[in-house]
């Protein structure tokens, strides 16, 4: 019994630790800001006592109604025949679907929780605060609401209690083992990591590393066709995650798709930065990563121009690098593809809640002497944006029920985070997220020249995803309008990752097209035509127009000064955060 009691206490303590970790980015450097929010809230209550009393009265009325219904519900032998609930979960809420939650006591817990959650939401909704403060308070409140769900605690989750009884406590024992393993690695497991290994069943498209420096390895993939387009394709992935999101397994590999459609594909594989690289800058990433990569690909393939693709922050880096090159009088790129990328940071979605003056100043002080932003901090921040889906459901399953999560390649990649140089990170959050300087012509100096996105004038394919909470599609739309070439804007269904990784073979989802890129994204969408299936097919046809003539494929990779260093996926992508 003591062992099981200790297990329950350990699992309960974990909840508190997770909440503190998720809310830490909001509090970092933001103590006075948070205090000001609550002072403003108190002042608002004093000015509008009737509105606040209405909220309180509705809440207490519903709670009394719930308490009054409890005797009838507990005397009803069949829970399904009990009276209608005072409040019911949203149909999309998976936390309380099991039959055990309909038993009177646990039904009462759920309804009381939902009433408190609605009360919190109404308080925040009624608050008259400036927009960023209200956004921050809304996010803070949502984290607290999600964390206090009765599903997250061993003594109030009937599914976990039933399983513990059926297994004579073995589920709690297994849960503690899972917890100990996750505490050691510093992240909640979202997938069975034993099922995957980079280089064994992930990132296995044949190729070789043909160049490396302190910032990246450059991978060239072997051709899969007898002839290829004359112009190669260079892919710049996000540097805050590993590149293999674009080369998962053969049946959902974007790289494999491009190679099979006759493109010579190169990939930047960013280094997982050690502490010694903590002073590396945004300009270093441009010069030693993107611009170096463009130069290498043109030299290896002996062409004047190449095609380029950037994903997420990789797209921001690529757009910046092209603006630098154009400012220096160079024009080595025939086409640009941006996937879920921001150049205009007018609306940064849910991540914007973390970024204000206080936060940026605090992080600038943190990294004034160098150091890296640990990948696990970034991973937890991203997970907190979807806490019920990416944190709490795994806390319940892994620890309260002692289960092993199912294998899922996307979630394996999601947990494989990378470190960023502190200097580069604070430049990025200040100049992009906080001040939105990149969209202003000449506002930023990069690599010694003023950058102006209006000079990025090659044809561009800009893809956004409709449910993206990291790069809102209207922000990607605004970003496309900063460019000065012929723009093909496409909007894919689903979110930041699932909307991008959607191979044609699965015949899932849809995408929208409209050739008229006016100033109103809603009007664009209203007139857009929906097309079934994957946007990959449409993009492939578009890229073929910019690929140049067909030439014989070369099976040897690299060449000249750039021999094969090691087989793909290379060393850098396998390095773990330490």
Summarize the entry for a quick read:
This protein is an alpha/beta fold. The chain is built from 18 helices and 17 strands. Strands 15-14-13-12-7-6-4-5-2-1-17 form an 11-stranded mixed sheet, with helices on both faces. A two-stranded antiparallel sheet has the order 3-16.
Task: Explain what the structure shows.
The protein is of the alpha/beta class. It folds into two domains: 2-185, no CATH class; 207-347 and 437-574, Rossmann fold. The chain has 18 helices and 17 strands. The strands form four sheets. It has an eleven-stranded mixed β-sheet with strand order 15-14-13-12-7-6-4-5-2-1-17, with helices on both faces. A two-stranded antiparallel ribbon has the order 3-16. Helix 3 runs antiparallel to helix 4 and helix 4 (104-126) runs antiparallel to helix 5 (131-147).
CATH topology of the largest domain: Rossmann fold
Number of strands: 17
- The CATH architecture of the largest domain can be named as 3-Layer(aba) Sandwich
Strand portion: 5-15%
Descriptive keywords:
578 residues; alpha/beta; Rossmann fold; 2 domains; eleven-stranded mixed sheet; two-stranded antiparallel ribbon; globular
Q: Topology, please?
A:
Blueprint: H1 2-27, H2 31-47, H3 49-75, H4 104-126, H5 131-147, H6 158-166, H7 170-185, E1 207-212, E2 216-221, E3 227-229, E4 233-236, H8 254-260, E5 265-270, H9 282-301, E6 306-311, H10 313-327, E7 333-339, H11 357-366, E8 372-373, H12 375-384, H13 387-400, H14 409-414, E9 420-421, H15 422-434, E10 445-446, E11 449-450, E12 460-465, H16 473-480, E13 487-492, E14 510-513, H17 521-527, E15 529-532, H18 535-544, E16 550-552, E17 566-567
């Amino acid at each position: 019994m003591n062992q099981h009691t200790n297990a329950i206490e350990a699992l309960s303590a974990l909840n508190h630790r997770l909440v503190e970790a998720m809310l830490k980015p909001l509090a970092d450097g933001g103590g006075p800001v948070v205090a000001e929010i609550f002072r403003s809230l108190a002042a608002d209550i004093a000015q509008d006592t009737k509105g606040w009393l209405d909220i309180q009265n509705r809440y207490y009325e519903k709670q009394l109604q719930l308490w009054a219904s409890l005797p009838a519900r507990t005397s009803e032998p069949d829970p399904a025949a009990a009276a209608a609930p005072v409040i019911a979960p949203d149909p999309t809420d998976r936390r309380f679907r099991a039959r055990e939650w309909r038993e009177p006591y646990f039904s009462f817990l759920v309804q009381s929780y939902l009433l408190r959650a609605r009360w919190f939401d109404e308080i925040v909704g009624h608050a008259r605060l400036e927009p960023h403060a209200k956004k921050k308070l809304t996010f803070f409140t949502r984290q607290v609401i999600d964390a206090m769900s009765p599903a997250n605690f061993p003594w109030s989750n009937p599914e976990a209690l039933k399983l513990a009884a059926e297994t004579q406590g073995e589920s709690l024992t297994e849960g503690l083992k899972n917890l100990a393993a996750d505490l050691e690695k510093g992240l909640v497991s979202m997938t069975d990591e034993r099922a995957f290994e980079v280089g064994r069943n992930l990132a296995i498209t044949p190729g070789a590393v043909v160049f490396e420096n302190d910032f990246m390895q450059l991978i060239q993939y072997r051709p899969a066709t007898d002839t290829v387009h004359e112009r190669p394709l260079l892919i710049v992935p996000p540097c805050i995650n590993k590149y293999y999101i674009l080369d998962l397994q053969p049946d959902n590999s974007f790289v494999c798709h491009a190679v099979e459609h006759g493109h010579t594909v190169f990939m930047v594989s960013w280094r997982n930065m050690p502490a010694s690289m903590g002073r590396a800058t945004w300009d270093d990433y441009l010069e030693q990563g993107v611009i170096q990569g463009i130069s290498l690909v043109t030299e290896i393939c002996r062409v004047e121009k190449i095609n380029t693709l950037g994903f997420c922050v990789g797209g921001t880096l690529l757009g910046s690098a092209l603006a630098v090159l154009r400012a220096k009088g160079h024009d080595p790129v025939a086409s640009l593809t941006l996937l879920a990328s921001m150049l205009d940071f007018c609306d940064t979605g849910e991540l914007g809640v973390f970024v204000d003056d206080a936060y940026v100043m605090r992080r600038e002080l943190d990294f004034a002497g160098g150091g890296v932003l640990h990948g696990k901090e970034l991973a937890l921040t991203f997970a907190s944006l979807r806490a019920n889906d990416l944190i709490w459901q795994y806390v319940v399953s892994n620890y309260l029920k002692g289960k092993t999560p199912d294998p899922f390649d996307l979630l394996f990649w999601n947990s494989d985070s990378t470190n960023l140089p502190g200097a580069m990170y604070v430049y990025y959050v200040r100049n992009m997220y906080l001040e939105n300087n990149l969209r202003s012509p000449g506002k930023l100096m990069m690599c010694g020249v003023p950058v102006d996105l209006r000079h990025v004038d090659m044809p561009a394919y800009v893809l956004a995803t409709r449910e993206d909470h990291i790069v809102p599609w209207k922000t990607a739309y605004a970003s496309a309008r900063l460019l000065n070439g012929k723009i093909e804007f496409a909007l894919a269904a689903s979110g930041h990752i699932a909307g991008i990784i959607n191979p044609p073979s699965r015949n899932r989802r849809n995408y929208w097209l409209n050739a008229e890129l006016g100033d109103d994204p809603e009007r664009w969408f209203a007139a857009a035509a929906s097309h079934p299936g994957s946007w990959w097919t449409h993009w492939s046809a578009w890229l073929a127009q910019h690929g140049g003539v067909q030439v014989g494929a070369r099976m040897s990779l690299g060449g000249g000064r750039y021999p094969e260093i090691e087989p793909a996926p290379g060393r850098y992508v396998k390095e773990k955060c330490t």
